[in-house]
Specification:
The structure is a single chain. By secondary structure, the chain is mainly beta. It has 4 domains: 15-57; 65-154, Immunoglobulins (Immunoglobulin-like); 158-249, Sandwich (Immunoglobulin-like); 253-342, Immunoglobulin-like (Sandwich), CATH 2.60.40. The chain is 2% helix and 45% strand. It has 1 helix and 30 strands. The strands form 11 sheets. Strands 15-21-20-18 form a 4-stranded mixed sheet, with no helix packed on it. Strand 11 (128-135) and strand 12 (144-151) form a beta hairpin.
Length: 343
């Protein structure tokens, strides 16, 4: 072998020889390595030309070693961080493999630099263990090593409230404290989300700005429908927005009174109704009650506010009754209403 590292000559017999080769630089630093020269048996074509099959292999006691690595969890529709696989030892170039196949949308560059990249397209059912393998270019059979790592692909980030599948935001009522918390799912999991509203708007008139953890709170001051673009971001960088509407109802009120919407008079010993006391505002449905009790044989439907029955003989006159209505948010109000029974 000449000083430039060139091995030449004509072998005269098949076989393998292992020698220690050393390279020295200009500063006298040197590195030895065992290499095996294998002389193969020539076929007929190579015999005619005098050629010999020669293979140089590395030290079979030093297979390549995969540099420790981490496979971070991914999220559907979010670009996966590029992972560079590296190895030392053996004889480059290396060939890479992974089993089982990477999640749909992720790819491994098997030749040369082992790079994992792509965008996951489907969520995994829990954590999956992958075996990463590397093989060097030793001849006749490459040396190899393996390393196992786990990987989870989280579902796509979604805002759980609102159409098409989520429930609407709970309605509020003017003058009544409001409090609810938005929820999201997918990506890096509960507790890792940051919320905001486009344009830095408040959720509705009178409410506080949306908190970073998704809480809507305050006391509404104006009824109406307030549509905002809600934005949530997970720790792994996934972002999703959704248009949600918050309905604020007017204050709960009983519309029936003694002047503008009075109860119609009845007649003794005659059927009465159905006649209903009515309410508006708040959050329907309502429930009704009355004190003191209505005249005998006259009943109040607690769900509709309707009164039906037959007014007893001797019930002529005007009585005052306190009607109470309660909405589905447990807000309630009362109002006195007169009931007149004529002969």
């Amino acid at each position: 072998m000449d000083p430039a590292g060139l091995i030449s000559g004509t072998p005269n017999a098949p076989g393998s020889t292992t020698l220690t080769y050393r390279v020295t630089d200009t500063t006298s630093n040197s590195t030895p390595k065992n290499l095996t020269i294998t002389i193969g048996v020539p076929d007929e074509a190579s015999s005619a030309s005098g050629a010999r099959v020669i293979a140089i292999t590395g030290d079979p006691q030093a297979p390549p070693t995969i540099t420790p690595l981490t496979l971070p969890n991914g999220t559907v529709n979010v670009a996966y961080p590029t992972i560079q696989l590296e190895a030392t030892g053996g004889i480059p170039p290396y060939t890479w493999s992974v089993a089982p196949a990477l999640p749909n949308g992720l790819f491994l560059n098997v030749l040369g630099p082992g790079i994992i990249s792509g965008t996951p397209l489907n969520a995994s059912t829990g954590s999956t263990t992958y075996t990463v393998g590397v093989m060097d270019s030793s001849v006749p059979a490459g040396q190899s090593s393996k390393l196992t790592r786990t990987l989870t692909i989280n579902a796509a980030l979604t805002i759980d409230a609102g159409s098409p599948t989520g429930p609407p935001l709970p309605a509020g009522t003017v003058g009544q404290p409001y409090h609810t918390r938005l929820s999201a799912s997918g990506a890096t999991g509960t507790g890792t989300y940051t919320w905001s509203i486009g344009g830095n708007l408040t959720p509705a008139s009178g409410l506080q700005p949306l908190s970073a953890i998704g809480v809507l709170s305050g006391t509404p001051t104006i009824p109406g429908s307030f549509t905002r673009t809600y934005r949530v971001q997970s720790e792994d960088g996934a972002v999703v927005t959704k248009s949600l509407t918050l309905n604020i109802n007017a204050m709960l009120s009983i519309d029936t009174d003694n002047i503008t919407v009075p109860l119609p008079p009845g007649h003794e010993a005659q059927p009465y109704g159905p006649v209903a006391v009515t309410a508006s505002g708040g959050i329907p449905p309502y429930s009704w009650s009355v004190t003191p009790p209505l005249p005998a044989s006259l009943a109040l439907n607690s769900l509709t506010g309707e009164m039906t029955g037959t007014l007893d003989a001797g019930s002529v006159g005007t009585t005052t009754h306190m009607f109470t209505v309660q909405d589905s948010a447990s807000q309630s109000i009362k109002k006195s209403v007169h009931l007149t029974v004529n002969p």
